[in-house]
Amino acid sequence: MIRILHSVSVMDRGGQETFIMNVYRNIDRQKVQFDFLCSLNKKGDYDEEIRALGGKIIYLDIEQKGNKFSKYYYKVKNMSKFLLKLAPNYDIIHLHNYHAFSAYISVAACKKAGFKNIILHSHNSLAPRPMLHKIFKPLLGMQKITRYACSQEAGKWLHGKKKFNVIYNGIDMSKFEYDMQIRRELRSELGVEYDIVVGMVGRFNFQKNHLFALEVFANCVKLKPNVKLLLVGKGELEQEIREKIKQLNLQDNVILLGTRTDVDKLMSAFDVLFMPSIFEGLSLVLVEAQACRLPIVVSDVVTKDTFISSAIQTVNLTEDKDVWAKKIIDSTCADRNKITVDREKFNIIAVASDLISKYKAICEREQAE
Questions:
Q1: Dihedral sign from CA coordinates of 111, 116, 120, 121
Q2: Does residue 56 sit in helix, strand or coil?
Q3: What is the pTM of this model?
Q4: Residue 365 contacts by C-beta under 8 Å, 6 or more apart in sequence?
Q5: 120-171, pLDDT tens digit by residue?
Q6: What is the pLDDT of residues 177-218, one digit of tens each?
Q7: Are the beta carbons of 147 and 159 closer than 8 angstroms?
């Protein structure tokens, strides 16, 4: 059996975590098994399912010490010491990252611990602390590792000119078929059956740009008073978002749904998906929405690799908010039955099969050496 250790922060319902779970559900777990190394010691949304599928969750328990400059040396040292006892149990460690600095620390610790096969997987196309990223990117490029990315943009962001493979964030396409019956039932349950429903799905953080989204949505309300915004997710900016809703007097038009396990059904209930992200690697939510033939309005920073639908519109983040609002309201008039979708590119069956083939090739190459 091939054993893979996936290194993440916590297995919550984020994009990269959901992608890993989509793969995990669609492999032969008698031949390949996943375990998860989590840097945050907290319960994740997927923890119970992981254990039910035979996987282990290991928390990275290391001592944090040192001053501003030496703490990173100690982080590599302590992380490698922790990983030393794990390395013999795994054929591959698969690091999920998007910033060259944190990626370099992880790769250095893995090498010091004795992991022979290291995969570094880029999941975004921008990140905070860009100068630190720029400094460590050449150092990261010198490492002998296998490089993956969720899109061309994400690959170039982290790996630069080094060779990398694009592994698309696949989904179960059949799960996201547009369903009129589910739409009626869920809209009735949420009390929005007679409203125009704008959906926004994503972690409440800087990247997803919720505060800007609320200002745009205030203009939507001016155009159509019966419009509702459903926010799906949780995160560190929740209190600021709640305050912004009050400031804009949107309490009657915005519904916070928290974390949901039925996003596939919500896609049928929405009239349009709104995604004004400041940056994206390859958005799983965007793929899911397109699979459901949902009209979409996104910022033009979103990678074109994701576009598989005839009903997706991009807007520059510098555009006036009334331009955004008009596109959102106009998009709700689309006939979803006429929207065309390429259902093969992100099909999880093909994506999972391709990834497992790559894992096997890495293991065979090591044995040959």
A1: negative
A2: coil
A3: 0.80
A4: none
A5: 999 987 777 888 888 899 999 999 999 999 989 899 999 999 999 999 999 9
A6: 999 999 999 999 999 999 999 999 999 999 999 999 999 999
A7: yes
The 10 Å Cβ neighbour count of residue 9 is: 17
Encoding tokens for residue 338?
């006429």
Which tens digit of pLDDT belongs to each residue from 25-70? Answer: 999 999 999 999 998 888 999 999 999 999 999 998 766 655 454 4
The residue type at 269: A
Q: Which two tokens stand for residue 160?
A: 């630069």
Q: Which two tokens stand for residue 127?
A: 């990140």
Q: What is the DSSP string of 286-352?
A: HHHHHHTT--EEEETTS-GGG--BSSEEEE-TTS-HHHHHHHHHHHTT--GGG--B--STTBHHHHH
Task: Provide the strand spans (E) within the chain.
Answer: 2-8, 32-38, 57-59, 92-97, 118-122, 146-149, 165-166, 196-201, 227-232, 254-258, 272-275, 296-299, 312-315
Helix, strand, coil share (%) of the chain residues, nearest 5: 45, 20, 40
Q: Output the six-digit token pair for 311.
A: 């009903």
CA 185 to centroid of chain Cα atoms: 28
Question: How many Å apart are CA 322 and CA 113, to the nearest integer?
Answer: 54
Rounded Cα gap, residues 165 and 357, in angstroms: 13
Say if residue 51 is exposed, middle or buried (CB neighbours under 10 Å; 0-12, 13-18, 19+).
Answer: exposed
